[in-house]
TrEMBL record:
Catalyzes the reductive methylation of 2'-deoxyuridine-5'-monophosphate (dUMP) to 2'-deoxythymidine-5'-monophosphate (dTMP) while utilizing 5,10-methylenetetrahydrofolate (mTHF) as the methyl donor and reductant in the reaction, yielding dihydrofolate (DHF) as a by-product. This enzymatic reaction provides an intracellular de novo source of dTMP, an essential precursor for DNA biosynthesis. This is Thymidylate synthase. Pathway: Pyrimidine metabolism; dTTP biosynthesis. PANTHER family: THYMIDYLATE SYNTHASE, THYMIDYLATE SYNTHASE 1. It holds the Pfam family Thymidylat_synt. SUPFAM superfamilies: Thymidylate synthase/dCMP hydroxymethylase. DUMP binds at R22, R180, S181, C182, D183, N191, H221, I222, Y223. InterPro entries: Thymidate_synth/dCMP_Mease, Thymidate_synth/dCMP_Mease_dom, Thymidate_synth/dCMP_Mease_sf, Thymidylate_synthase. (6R)-5,10-methylene-5,6,7,8-tetrahydrofolate binds at D183, S282. The gene is thyA. The lineage of its organism: Bacteria, Pseudomonadati, Pseudomonadota, Gammaproteobacteria, Alteromonadales. It comes from Pseudidiomarina insulisalsae. Belongs to the thymidylate synthase family. Bacterial-type ThyA subfamily. Transmembrane segments: none annotated.
């Protein structure tokens, strides 16, 4: 929590105003942030200075793991987070590749599970990483990348957290995740949960101990219409200690994640938090 608050304070104190063409808003922006999560010690990095709707964050990530490309499928899992990008962005609504209501196009999970090969067929990046780690192999390329510039024109948004790189040292699994663009009041609250949970889940289904997760962010910003709430409300609050995440131990494979797992398989213990803050969302 300390590192989150320090990043927020740094943006408020040192941020530079940058105009953003896609949303038509200005963002107070800093470059480069390094966050770390103690997955081994189960210090779940949930924001405590406002109520976090962490279940939606896990639901969203489960949708990426399953390769979903439709906001309706995300809603069924418990995340409404893709409704706006799939259905309200004018550029995407006019895009000839959009296949009707709720279509997100070739984003995130599609790239992670079905990256199109130029010579036909597709690559399942996640399956390869799970298979290698399960037999104790780290080939120094245990990478899942959602970032496919050749298909940006076929999706509603370029991936923000775009690359996840796993490492195995003896029996301990590590994760380094890369993010090019971060909406700190709204998106980071979710992304922290996702990086932590991805490492915890991958360690569980590949039979290893989780170590630390490293989260590297390039452009970290606060939108102009979020600044007052962050500076005058959220940053005035005292944080509480980190809660713990419990994952159903019956989850043992990628197939489990793909088929029967729901949000009921995740529980958070000792989550003390301040009141919710309703930050504006930019499409
Ligand atoms: N401008 C912007 N910021 C983002 O963080 C973001 C995007 N766009 N587009 C793609 C995804 C969608 N994400 C989202 C979308 C909505 C919320 C959101 O509204 N969160 C609320 C309530 C969540 C709930 O009720 O389930 C929050 O208070 O955290 C968070 C992340 C993250 N990403
Ligand atoms: O997981 C996510 C997804 C999105 N965001 C934020 C970061 C930006 O504010 C927007 C994306 O806009 P771009 O113009 O494509 O950078 O969404 C996030 O923080 N986390």
């Amino acid at each position: 929590m300390k590192q989150y608050l320090e990043l927020c304070q740094r943006i408020v104190d040192e941020g530079v105003w940058v105009a953003n063409e896609r949303t038509g808003k200005r963002c107070l922006t800093v470059i480069n942030a390094d966050l770390e999560y103690d997955v081994a010690g189960n210090q779940f990095p949930l924001i405590t200075t406002r109520k976090s709707f962490w279940k939606a964050a896990i639901a969203e990530f489960l949708g990426y793991i399953r390769g979903y490309d439709n906001a309706a499928d995300f809603r069924k899992l418990g995340a409404k987070t893709w409704d706006a990008n799939a259905n309200l962005n004018e550029a995407w609504l006019q895009n000839p590749h959009r296949r009707g209501e709720d279509d997100m196009g070739r984003v995130y999970g599609v790239q992670g599970r079905r990256w199109a090969k130029p010579d036909g067929g597709s690559v399942d990046q996640l399956r390869k990483v799970v298979d290698n780690l399960s037999r104790g192999v780290d080939d120094r390329g245990e990478i899942i990348s959602f970032y496919n510039p050749g298909e940006f024109h076929m999706g509603c948004l370029r991936p923000c957290m775009h690359t996840h790189n796993f490492s195995l040292l003896d029996d301990t699994l590590y994760l380094t995740s890369y993010q090019r663009s971060c909406d700190v009041p709204l998106g980071l609250n979710f992304n922290q949960v996702q990086v932590f949970t991805f490492l915890a889940l991958m360690a569980q289904i590949t039979g290893h101990q989780p170590g630390r997760a490293y989260h590297k962010i390039v452009n970290a910003h606060i939108y102009e219409d979020q600044l007052e709430l962050m500076r005058d409300v959220q940053l005035k609050r005292e944080p509480y200690p980190a809660p713990q995440l419990e994952i159903n131990p019956a989850i043992k494979s990628l197939e489990d994640l793909e088929t029967w797992v729901t949000l009921d398989d995740f529980k958070v213990h000792n989550y003390q938090h301040h009141d919710p803050i309703n930050y504006p969302f930019s499409v």
